[in-house]
Amino acid sequence: MVCRTCGKKGDHWTSKCPYKDLAAPPESFSDKPATADAATPSKSGTYVHPGQREGAKLGSEMRPRRHEENSVRVTNLSEDTREPDLLELFRTFGAVSRTYVAIDQKTGMSRGFGFVNFVNKEDAERAINKLNGYGYDNLILRVEWATPRAN
User: Fold this and answer.
1) How far apart, in whole angstroms, are the C-alpha atoms of residue 46 and residue 6?
2) Per the count of CB atoms within 10 A, which of 23, 26, 59, 116 is most buried?
3) DSSP H or E run through 136
4) What distance lies between CA 117 and its chain's CA centroid?
5) Which pTM does this prediction carry?
6) Is 46 exposed, middle or buried (0-12, 13-18, 19+ CB in 10 A)?
7) Residues with Cβ < 8 Å from 30, sequence gap 6 or more?
8) What is the per-residue pLDDT across 77-131, written as a single tens digit (0 to 9) for each?
9) Locate the RRM domain: which residues (predicted)?
10) H or E stretch including 140?
């Protein structure tokens, strides 16, 4: 093997090279980023994780935030209700950002409840007022504000 520090063949590993204090730093290493649009390195020239760099978003800030205050819970859904069905039913009241129907993992059938997130709170309120008690797929829907998740 050839030592990366001294370039000599020998019975030592690079980390144990007796000449490592005398060797010049490798030319291929650069403190500067390869491209101009890359994040700037820290002042000391050490690696900084992208999440810890100046201006970086933290944890939950990186994911698009759900507007849980605009979320509606729908219960008493039939077993064959799917997310496109909920979207079709609720989009008449306004822009829907997300639909979710709870599915039983074993049977693949609906568990009887779901959630609809609206872009605007007024649209969600209108949907609750119109669809609570509405007959859908031979069942009477219960539509109410979703309670926020406990962290």
Assistant:
1) 24
2) 116
3) strand 135-136
4) 16
5) 0.55
6) exposed
7) none
8) 999 999 999 999 999 999 999 999 999 999 999 999 999 999 999 999 999 999 9
9) 70-148
10) strand 139-140
Nearest-angstrom CA–CA distance, 23 and 27? 11
Q: What is the DSSP string of 72-125?
A: EEEES--TT--HHHHHHHHGGGS-EEEEEEEE-TTT-SEEEEEEEEESSHHHHH
Q: How far apart are CA 104 and CA 107, in angstroms?
A: 6
Distance CA(54)–CA(38), nearest Å, equals 13
Cβ–Cβ < 8 Å for 82, 146? no
For the ranges 22-36, 41-55, 73-87, the maximum mean pLDDT occurs at 73-87
SS3 130: helix
What is the C-alpha to C-alpha distance for residues 4 and 15, in angstroms, rounded to an integer? 9
Q: Would you state the structure tokens that stand for residue 87, as one six-digit string?
A: 């979207």
